[in-house]
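Quick one, tokens below:
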């Protein structure tokens, strides 16, 4: 368009009849008009003005809604994290400093935790016992967790019956870790609620209680007629709830304190 304006200026100057002043003025006016038109056309097709995206009111509202949602989600996530954060060591993989007095959740034991478990077995008695490891037949997670103790017991010099974890189905299911030792009394279905039989406290059962306490777990006791005096059936049931786990842990510690008060106790 600018080129056209220049040619028009020359044509008016050369071909137009009249006074030179009038011809020059007409040419200048024509050039200005054509130049303005050309400048306007160039500005209209400019990439920055033609293709620049412009946010509409709807887009702005949508963007604002997304921002508000992101902020709300962040606040909600932080709030849930604070509410669900375990207290103390509950539900958290214990560090190498965890020992007696701390509660742990089930996890693959670290080398230091395995050493503390073995130290617990040796703290109570130098005798080497035998264990039968068992878990619920339909609980694969509990059986996998129990399997890691096969080598740990062997390291401590204890005997693991069959070198396996036995999948069993109990008539009365239990959660948590339960230590079954020899009993002279079989199961009595007519026994009243709250009744039971006394179990002999053996160095083997006490050593096992101490070993599990060392890695943050309490345990319950039980009796089996078919077990020998030096055999303990270590049953790994489903994990207890945090409250139940703490109660079991505290109860086991009290039993160990009482055992040490008995003459001959460690």
């Amino acid at each position: 368009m600018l080129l056209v304006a220049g040619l028009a200026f020359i044509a008016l100057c050369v071909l137009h009849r009249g006074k030179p002043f009038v011809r020059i003025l007409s040419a200048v006016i024509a050039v200005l008009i054509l130049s303005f038109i050309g400048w306007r056309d160039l500005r209209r097709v400019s990439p920055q003005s033609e293709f620049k995206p412009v946010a509409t009111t709807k887009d702005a509202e949508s963007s604002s809604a997304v921002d508000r949602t992101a902020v709300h989600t962040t606040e909600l996530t932080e709030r849930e994290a604070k509410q669900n954060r375990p207290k103390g060591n509950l539900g958290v993989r214990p560090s190498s400093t965890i020992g007696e007095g701390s509660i742990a959740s089930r996890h693959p034991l670290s080398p230091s935790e395995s050493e503390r478990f073995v130290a617990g077995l040796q703290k109570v008695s130098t005798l080497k016992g035998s264990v039968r490891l068992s878990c619920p037949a339909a609980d694969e997670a509990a059986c996998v967790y129990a399997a890691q103790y096969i080598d740990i017991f062997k390291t401590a010099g204890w005997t693991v019956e069959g070198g396996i974890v036995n999948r069993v189905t109990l008539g009365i299911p239990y959660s948590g870790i339960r230590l079954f030792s020899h009993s002279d009394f079989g199961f009595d279905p007519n026994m009243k609620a709250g009744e039971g039989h006394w179990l002999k406290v053996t160095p083997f059962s006490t050593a096992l209680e101490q070993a599990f306490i060392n890695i943050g777990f309490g345990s319950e006791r039980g009796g089996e007629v078919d077990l020998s005096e030096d055999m303990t059936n270590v049953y790994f049931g489903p994990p207890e709830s945090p409250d139940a786990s703490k109660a079991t842990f505290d109860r086991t510690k009290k039993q160990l304190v009482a055992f040490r008060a008995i003459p001959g106790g460690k």
